[in-house]
Amino acid sequence: MLSYQHAYHAGNFADVHKHLTLHAVIDHLLRKKSFITYLDTHAGRGLYPLDATETNRLQEYREGVIPLWKDRQALANEPLLSDWLAALARAQPDPAHLTHYPGSPWWMGHRRRTGDRQWLFELHAGEHEHLAQQPLSEAVARIHGDGLKGLLQRLPVKTPRLCVLIDPSYERKGEYLEVAETLLAAMRKARHAVMLVWYPLLPAGRHRELLEGVREGGLRKVWYGEFTRRTPTEGERGMVGSGMLVVNPPWGLDERLAAAMAPVVARLGAPGSYRSGWWVEE
Ligand code: SAM
């Protein structure tokens, strides 16, 4: 039974880190003319009005996207972050006011070219219903089903390039290993794909199962970026940071993100840190 709803957390520090990384990857992929399939295994609702009851309950966006949005003029000199904030403005009904936070499908969706394809999976019936109501192009497939199984069923894809985002809610302990196994199986079917995986940094360190599984499975060219927002207090169990794995990262991703994350950490960390590098080299 699925209970997680991303609307409670939309626009928080982890979303900023995840979507900034996704934006940087997509930006790089779109520099070439050949078409892309973007497959989102855990799509969520697609768009989150900040005044929705769920999002308003915890208001996590106040310690996430809001401080960056407020400072967007001061951040104009940071190329990737300012570009991300400009894209965020385009997701608003009124670009001068931040009233909505776009989810992962949007970061490719708003730049999709005619020949690019998009597959969005969402297993939660209610969340899928929200996604189905988004005014997206008919060329965007929204599937009510398991994204990990769906990914493996749909490989290889017809376009020359493939970008995958795996962004589970990790409600079950076994999910970390399942994600690692799916990633390994998917990379065997699509060796040149760029695949991104988000994972939470919890005091229990459960993400290590995922990272070790990927290394032991023999995957190469695996890059990671981790934003630790704060040090956990004694006995704490909640999320203290956000991690991203990227298999086959585009050239220059590490430098671009390190530069963009520095002002993010300065504004959202309490106090925080960011580190990145190869998890498994070539
Ligand atoms: N990717 C979204 C974004 O960045 O805007 C957020 C996704 S949220 C972290 C995880 C979503 O995955 C939830 O909406 C949940 O209902 C859904 N979900 C959980 N297990 C799933 C599965 N096996 N296949 C597809 N969706 C699943």
Which short descriptors sum up this protein?
282 residues; alpha/beta; Rossmann fold; eight-stranded mixed β-sheet; two-stranded antiparallel sheet; 10 helices; globular; binds S-adenosylmethionine
Describe the protein's architecture and organization.
The protein has 282 residues and is an alpha/beta fold. The protein has one domain: Rossmann fold (3-Layer(aba) Sandwich), CATH 3.40.50. 37% of the residues lie in helices and 21% in strands. The chain contains ten helices and ten strands. The chain has helices at residues 13-29, 53-58, 65-70, 79-90, 104-109, 125-133, 147-154, 175-189, 207-216, 253-268, and strands at 36-40, 47-49, 100-102, 117-122, 140-144, 161-166, 194-201, 222-228, 241-247, 273-280. The strands form two sheets. It has an eight-stranded mixed sheet with strand order 5-4-1-6-7-9-8-10, with helices on both faces. It has a two-stranded antiparallel ribbon with strand order 2-3. Helix 8 links the parallel strand 6 and strand 7. Helix 1 packs antiparallel against helix 10 (253-268) and helix 7 (147-154) packs parallel to helix 8 (175-189). The longest helix is centred in the N-terminal third of the chain and has 17 residues, at 13-29. It is globular, with a radius of gyration of 18 Å. 44% of the residues are buried. The mean pLDDT is 96. S-adenosylmethionine (SAM) binds at residues 2, 4, 6, 18, 41-44, 103-104, 121-124, 127, 146-148, 167-169.
Q: Which SSEs are present, and which pair or pack?
A:
Layout: H1 13-29, E1 36-40, E2 47-49, H2 53-58, H3 65-70, H4 79-90, E3 100-102, H5 104-109, E4 117-122, H6 125-133, E5 140-144, H7 147-154, E6 161-166, H8 175-189, E7 194-201, H9 207-216, E8 222-228, E9 241-247, H10 253-268, E10 273-280
Parallel strand pairs: 1-4, 1-6, 4-5, 6-7
Antiparallel strand pairs: 2-3, 7-9, 8-9, 8-10
Helix pairs in contact: 1-10, 7-8, 8-9
This protein binds S-adenosylmethionine.
